[in-house]
Here is the input.
Amino acid sequence: MNSFDSKAPAGDLAQKWSKHKAAIKVVSPANKRKLDIIVVGTGLGGASAAASLAELGYNVKVFCIQDSPRRAHSIAAQGGINAAKNYQNDNDSVYRLFYDTIKGGDYRAREANVYRLAEVSNLIIDQCVAQGVPFAREYGGLLDNRSFGGAQVSRTFYARGQTGQQLLLGAYAALNRNIGLGRVKSYPRHEMLDVVLIDGEARGIIARNLVTGEIERHGAHAVVIASGGYGNVFFLSTNAMNSNGSAAWQCYKKGAFFANPCYTQIHPTCIPKHGDQQSKLTLMSESLRNDGRIWVPKKLEDVKKLRAKQIKPSDIAEEDRDYYLERRYPAFGNLVPRDVASRAAKERCDAGFGVNETGLAVFLDFKSAIERLGKDVIKARYGNLFQMYEKITDTNPYEQPMQIFPAVHYTMGGIWVDYNLMTTIPGLYAIGEANFSDHGANRLGASALMQGLADGYFVLPYTIGDYLSRHIQDKKVDVSNPAFDEAEKAVIDKINKIFSIKGKQTVDDLHKKLGNIMWEYVGMARDEAGLKKAIEEIKELRAEFWKDVYVPGKEGDFNPEIEKAVRLADFLEIGELMARDALNRNESCGGHFRVEYQTEEGEAKRDDENYNYVAAWQYNGSDAEPTLHKEMLNFEYIKVAQRNYKD
Amino acid sequence: MKLTLKIWRQASPKAKGEFKTYQVDGISPDTSFLEMLDILNNDLIHKGEEPVAFDHDCREGICGMCSLYIDGHAHGPDTEITTCQLHMRKFKDGDTITIEPWRSRAFPVIKDLVVNRSAYDQILQAGGFISVNTGGVPDANAIPIPKKNADESMDAAACIGCGACVATCKNGSAMLFVAARVSSLALLPQGKVEGARRAKAMVSKMEELGFGGCTNTRACEAECPKGISVAHIARLNREFLSAKLKD
Ligand SMILES: Cc1cc2nc3c(=O)[nH]c(=O)nc-3n(C[C@H](O)[C@H](O)[C@H](O)COP(=O)(O)OP(=O)(O)OC[C@H]3O[C@@H](n4cnc5c(N)ncnc54)[C@H](O)[C@@H]3O)c2cc1C
Ligand code: SF4
Ligand code: FES
Here is the structure.
């Protein structure tokens, strides 16, 4: 078996990263020129890694599904990016960011990784400013901050409601510069369909040219997976339509362990579903919770009247409103972490207080903020989000509160990686949302952007050298190696098989069915019976897919339906592993809530004695059960406690 | 809602395209335009026909992947939004809607409504960046930047690279797109350093790639989903002029 050692360095927490950097090997510039690296993905993780590795002198090939690297899903991030700069003098520090992240993640992340993340967070902001990212500023010309959930300090940097866009344009510009200089070769509209191992080490990928349908072979001395999260397994999510889990899943099927697949983040503030014709859900940034207050009516009769459109929300008197987050969590109020806010919304809706016709919505209200600060200030802060909301719902949020409801947003689980970000397959790395590393069972807002850029700019460029230094004598990878023949054949066979089924259901028909199973049984509230049912139903649905899917058109052509079909085939396997992992974890923690395990007040109840581990699953073949490996979490610096956002 | 759709179908870059007419029924006014196309495609597949190829990803108006010329307007009849943000309530029951791809020499059709916009990437590779490596940069607050400049820079940086400006321009000019990038960087002290060189490199790349010249019709500004102002073109021209003077 490959190495399953976290490689987290020993010694003082604050010294771990610098000591580790000093201990690992480096590759000389002359040797870097001889080494090739493949980066799959051009989001914040992939673009920053590809650019930084190229600057070091490696030959880089970078792949993405979209027609340009700039359109990776990271572009859609709205709210902001965290860093421990303490520019606000509010007593923030690397330690506090570290502590908040571990606690926010419900004590299910690796201390050493999280501390490093907090440590390099400050470098990210410096780097982005140097690249020309137009962060929001104060009148004095210095950078502005806002607050996000799970923190009592203001450490979130932002560029209006388009922070992800601006950070990605920064990384994409760095990438472009290196493409222009001939150090990176870019392959847009290319989808990796398999990773190729030679003698157990990652040595390349098989990719499909999405314009021509051609299957291509690409060799390299190391492969970096930066393919994002798999939230679209739920069909409806806030993820972009092309986001998928396939690249990560092929790594799993080739032997990389997959960690904590059940940890799914359900974001509390999304625009509620409007009907069955919907293809995607839209997020309303968490930053809105800085000034927006969440409530439902106190009286069921008001709910009835609202649903019947006899009254407007603004007609309900202050004393008849239940600001339930402020009521339940006085210390953090509307800024509790996402998992807590989502469950609280569900609790109110389950109790019958949902404010729209479907009963699945609560209010996010700016009335007090507008009264306090004026409409102009609110407009300057959230103008584009308000505009977006109005375009979608046809309601003016300056006059009536927004309606929101939780939706699938982010996957904390992913490919297991060690402290060097290497998977259990030597030479195969995973960064950004694709790995499992830093957020434990729940990610704090504005921390995904931080992690993607930390991995790509400041961690991987160092750690990958340690591995590559042992391969400086290796020749260029020969893509006529039988391992490539085999992988390519498997990919072609799979595609042909899907085309040949010619059944009756479209990919979307089947994907919606999967989404329903996932939301029902593997969503915000899970229990043993439901999870067992989910596993069975997913298996049946998978069989149905392989018998009854219909993909029009032919191979060797631009064909979005075959792309979607190949991804769905993997989602139908990922969903099962998620359910299996959720079933194994007999506790509630962060984004994983098992109804059987809750406190009297309905809070998540962890079981530290039995589940204080990362669940890393090993693939054993399509019909066999996967093997569970446990990476025990060792908390040396933080006292593990029940999360408390009340006082 | 019941609608008639006239959609451009083109099998491949070299194939001759044509309009085909389709009917959709039972569309809720709350669905988005692209969801309406999803519904059409699902019906087409069920009938054994090839679905209509179109580009899309984020469906939130930010990735710039979606395009579409709808009833003669880039991104459809509404203002300051992308096609994916357009909702069917903007149309009337019984309407006939014409849907075409971007039409511009520099953006050849790949299939149906999908075009190749890689020329945009090439322009940016020529100079749309600040030449700094990762690491070794000063503290983020070392250089104060007036809020006004940062805000204006952000206005320009809001460009999503969708191509609507090119598709709308009778000359097929990419001037608004180039200006947005040049201007966004030129407004910041970090970007000012190589401002002139950047402007020159990007403009000459644009010309080389077959985009037309700018004749100040301002059609681009009117159709830009992000409200990018033509004032940025003036700033680009200033940068460009200073590059010429230095030559
Ligand atoms: C609406 C929304 C708002 C968000 N807001 C915030 C926020 O304010 N702050 C924050 O910190 N986080 C936020 N997040 C989370 C954050 O945006 C993501 O977690 C993060 O951007 C992921 O970056 P990434 O680089 O890992 O992957 P992505 O940006 O998802 O990029 C994945 C890349 O991989 C490519 N790819 C995938 N599969 C393949 C394949 N098989 N072959 C080739 N290429 C492939 C894609 O083309 C793409 O280039 C938000 C997320 C959403 C959905
Ligand atoms: S300037 Fe406007 S229309 Fe042109 S590419 Fe940018 S966002 Fe699109
Ligand atoms: S799909 Fe992203 S902008 Fe329209």
Observations:
- The longest strand of chain B covers residues 3-9.
- Chain B has a mean pLDDT of 96.
- The CA atoms of residues 5 and 214 of chain B lie 33 Å apart.
- Chain B touches chain A through 78 residues (CB under 8 Å).
